[in-house]
Amino acid sequence: MTFAASEKLVFGEFELLPSQRMLRGREGPIELRPTSLSVLIYLVSSAGRVVSKEELLDAIWPDVTVSEESLTRCVSDIRSALSDGERRMLKTVSRRGYLFAAEVETGPSKIPTPARRKSMALTAMFGILALIVALLGTWALSSAQPKIHSRPLLAVLPLEGAATEADDDYFADGLTEDISLALSRFGSILVIAQSSTVRFKGSTASIRDIGDQLNARFLLTGSTRRDDARIILNLQLTDVADGVQVWSGQYDGEVNGFFGAKTALVGTIASILDRQITKVELDRIARSQPPDMTAYDLVLQGDALLRNTEGRERGENIATARDLYERAAAIDPRYSEAVEGIANTYLLAWLEPHSSSPLAGEFQTPNALKWAGDYARKAVELDETSATARATLGWILNWQSGPSAGLTLYDQALQLNPGLVDWRYGLLLSHGGRAEEAEAYMKQIMISDPLHPPRYRYLLGKAYYFQGRYDEGLPLIRQAAAQMPAHQPSHVLLAALLAEIGETNSLKDLVAEVNALVPGFTVEKWLAYIRISDEAYADRLRRGLLAAGFPET
Questions:
Q1: Which of 48, 165, 175, 395 has the CA that lies 20 to 30 A from 415?
Q2: Are strands 190-191 and 153-156 parallel, antiparallel or unpaired?
Q3: Beta strand extents in 4-147 (DSSP E only)
Q4: Closest CA relative to residue 40, chosen from 98, 109, 95, 96
Q5: In the predicted model, is pLDDT for residue 524 greater than 80?
Q6: Distance in angstroms (rounded) separating the CA atoms of residues 550 and 544
Q7: Is residue 427 in some structural domain?
Q8: Which domain holds residue 489?
Q9: Is residue 248 within 8 Å of residue 236, measured between CB atoms?
């Protein structure tokens, strides 16, 4: 069965609107997880035909390996939504798959006016993102200007906030990050990381100066304003080379409509996107769960606190962020980002002590690490298309089981979002015996994050170290250690590297610095702490540290 974008599919007491990704019953819209809704659309469009489990898994999760349990849960969700406990509409055909047995009719969509207004409003907002993508692709093909990179480089600058509350900057900051992340999913656009662009918040520098510093071809700028009833978002896309504004757009609509009609995103984007953007990528964005606005706001507040986890307020910020995430999850239990946020707070509390924090008792406790993993797994289950949820789970698995377990999740995250910037992936690649890949990844994200922190240079230097390219690694690690005087790993690695090349002049002082940073330092304790799973790499570091004069046990 095929259907036009304007059609609805009617069966029993229900109607399904594929273009709007909406299921409705007699009482109005019926909520379904995005992935479950995708399965329903596929099955209804195949009504009267047995669809194998393998076909469904390939269609709904084309680039991500998931177990049959994910499909089974989607089928259970569908039966619950359709009140089909007796399996009269959706039948299981033993050893063959599933059959949608209800009679399906097609007809024009008749969404009530309020819902239509919501859909049109949010379609306009997300159409902004789609049009930016299309413009960038078209501009890259038609511009006579020399290309800086093979893909258009876009910097999403911090949105200017004009909120009613003085401390409401977190909303503009969070919305900036969401727009940047959404655009980074498209393989034809290289989006500069927010850790670089955030430095230009409130900047009076010219478009040319900012573009030059970020090495960007295009800048996306704008502002957002909201009150209890409405949100206004203005965006402008500017070509850095000549300062010409190539596009501008506005979303002006009700707060309740801002995310409520997000399911219309696929149909809106598909009609105008550049040819380089694949259907798979469109489907991934379309399957994102539209959160309740109140829950979304709470998550943005939590994210803002977790960006500030340095200094004496670290423990308090983590504890407050957890409370915000938990409140968001209570409002919308299926909101993946809220659950992922809770996972991050448990890991942060486990990793470092916070003596004055309510979370002080969680430091290095097995339960805290277990809860971090449990919440991260739930976040992945809630949104199987989320790259950040898989990355978070991968990082936690590194601490639970070692780099190999974490790398599997990170590899999946990079399949979901090739533009993901996460230095932790570079670390796990090095610790997991994949130093050449770590080198390539760190170089890639240094382009995406041109104002990157010293940690990036340390990780690139570490990739060189494990390849035996000491001359290339030395200046990077030396610089990182100088810029991060309290960063234990860079000082430890620098000592091992100096010992390997026989540069002993400064080695004695460096060993003393390491012992001051890590009291009771031994080679075995350090190797157990940093979790290098590749035996050859671990032996290389062990040899260097012993040559530097550190005790083995």
A1: 175
A2: parallel
A3: 7-11, 14-17, 22-25, 28-30, 50-51, 90-93, 97-100, 105-108
A4: 98
A5: yes
A6: 9
A7: no
A8: 438-553
A9: yes
